[in-house]
Amino acid sequence: MKFKRLLPFAKPSELLVCETDGFSLRAAVLRRVDDEMELLCQASTEQVDMAEGLADVIASLKAEGWQGGGSAVLLSPAVLSTLLELPVNPKKPRPLPQMLELVRWEAEPLLLQHITRWSVGHLLVGQGYMSEDQARSVMDMQQGKLNANGKLAMAEQFSLRRFGDLAVELGYIKRSQLNACLTGQEWLKSDDEAIECGWLAQGPVEDIPGTFNWLISCVHQSLLQRWAAAFARHGVKLRAMYPLTGCAAALLADGERNAVILESQPGVGFSSRLADGHATLVRHYLNPHKAALDICLESYHALHAPPREPVWLACWPPMPDLAETLGQMLELEVHGFKHPLSGAIVSPGMAGAALQTLGLSAAPRVGGVRVGGPLPPLRDRLEVRAAALLMVLLLAAGISELSLWLRLGSVQRDKAQIDAGWQSIDTAVKRINAQIAAIDERKQKIKALRGERQRVEALTRFYDEEIPERMGLVKGVLGMLQTVVDDEVIIQRLDEPGKHIPKPASATPLPPPPARPDDNAFEVENIVLEAWAMSETAAQTFVQRVNNTARGWDLQLRDPKVAFDKGPMNANGFSISLRLVKLAGPDGKIIRQSDTERHETTSFE
Prior knowledge:
Elements: H1 2-6, E1 14-20, E2 25-33, E3 36-45, H2 50-63, E4 71-76, E5 80-86, H3 96-115, H4 120-126, H5 132-142, H6 152-157, H7 163-169, H8 175-186, E6 195-204, E7 212-220, H9 221-232, E8 237-243, E9 259-265, E10 268-275, E11 278-286, H10 292-303, E12 311-315, H11 322-330, E13 334-336, H12 348-357, E14 369-370, H13 382-484, E15 489-495, E16 522-533, H14 536-550, E17 556-566, E18 572-584, E19 603-604
Parallel strand pairs: 1-4, 4-8, 9-12, 12-13, 17-19
Antiparallel strand pairs: 1-2, 2-3, 5-7, 6-7, 8-14, 9-10, 10-11, 15-16, 16-18, 17-18
Helix pairs in contact: 10-11, 13-14
C-alpha cells in the first residue's frame, strides 16, 4: 500500500463501478478527491442482455454529464471468491507461472461447483418464475423417475428433454421467462475450461506449519474477455471483476483487526472472519427464498465466531433496521457499514471495490480477477522497474547536479579572484590613462606656450627689425619718387600687396613665386606702383628714372607696362604699372645690385 501511494500513476482518479446480479445492472462514476471519494453520477437498468444494459447505463451516465472513457470494475456473481490453504509463504512468493498453476489447480473444481448455481432451474426459481416443487418435478421427469401419479410412460417421454423446454411444455413458465433466464445465464457461466485467477495473501494457518491462507478469486477466461469487449465497445477499459459479495470488507477501518463481516444480497449471503487483520474463514450462502435476516443469522452461525467479537453488516438493498434486529437476536452489537455513497444504486460492495481500486482503502482485503491476468511481483513489474530506473536517473542527475554545483562554486571563486585582479588592473589602467592624459595636457600647454613664445618673438623681431627697415624702405621709395616725378607724370597708386617669407623646412611650403628663367632668386619685398603720363615719352622716361634710382635701394624693376589709357579729366595719356622687388638668394641673403646687373626690357601694350 505504501508503495502504491508512491506510484500515483498506477491508480485511476476516476472510476466506473458496475454491479450485476445477472438480471439487472447498476453503475456509478466515482472520483478520488484527496483521500476521499465522491459520486459524480449513477444509473441502473433492468435489461437482461448485459450488452444492451451496459449501453443503456453508459448512455444515461453521459446524459448526466459524464465524459466517458477511463477505467471500470465489475461486481458479478460469476466470480468465485474463497479462501485456500497453500504451502506458499507470502514473504517468499513463487514465480508467477508456478503460482498461477497452483491456484488454478485448487480453484477449478470449486468454480465448477460454483457455476452449477447458475443452471436454468436455479435461475428460474431464483427469479420466482417457478417454485422449488415445480423444479423438482421437472428434474424427476428428466431423470426418468416416477411422477406423483406413478405413470412411468410419462417420465420416459420427458427424460431426454431440456429443463427449460420441459418446464414450458408443462406450463410452469412462459417462453419469455425462459429466454430471459437463458440470456442472463450467458453472462454468468461458461463451459470452457480456461479460468483467470487473482489472489491476495492472508495470515498463516494455525494448525498447519508452513501453510498460509490465500484469498483467491476466479472466473472463466472467456466470460472475463466477453465483459472486457463489451466495455471496450464504449471506450471504457475494464480493469478487473470482483465477486458480488465480499467487497464490503474494504470499507472496514484499518484499526479493526478482529471482526466478523456479514454481507447480504437478495438470496445470497457472505460471511468472513478477520483475525489480526487477515481473513481466516470465508462462507457463502445461497437460498433465493430466504429473507435477508435469516441469511445473516445462518451465515453468522456457520462461522462459529467467538462471542463478543465485533460484527459488521453490509446489506443491499438498504434495510436500516436489519442491523438492530440482527443485534437483538444475536445479543451482540452489530455495526452497519455506513459509507456516504451507499444508497439505492451504490451498494457497500461497489463502494469497497472502488476504494481499493482507487487506492483509498486502508488495507487490501478484497480479491479481484484482473483483466490480462495477475500482476507479477513488485520487483518484476514494468512500472516498478520504470520507477526504479527513474529514481536511478534522478539520483544520477542529483549527483551530477551536486558535482556541477561544487564545480560552479569553484569556478565562481576563481572568477571572483580573476574579477578582483581585473578590477585592480582596470584601476591601474585608469590611473595610467589619467597620467597620460595629464602628460598630453601638459604637452599641449607646452606647445601652446612655445607657439605663444614664437608669436611674441616674431612680433618682437617684427617691431625691432622689420618695421624700422620697412619704414626706411618706404621713406626711400617716397624720396625716390620725389626725384623722378615731373609735371607730366601723376602717381596714382603705391601699394605693398605682400611679401614672400621663406618658411622652415618642417612647415608646409607655400607655392614659390613665379621665377624668371635666368633667376633662381625669390622676392622678399614687393611694391606695386601705378602712374599716368601725358605722353609715351614721359612714361618711358619715368620708368627709366625709377629703375635707375631703385638700384641704390637694392630694388629691381619688374613687370613694367606702359599702355594708352584715359587719365584725369578724361585726358588722353598712358598708364604706367610696375613692381619694385627685393630679391634674396637660395640661402636667404639679399642680392645686392653690385653683385649682378640685370637688363629690364620695357614692353608696350
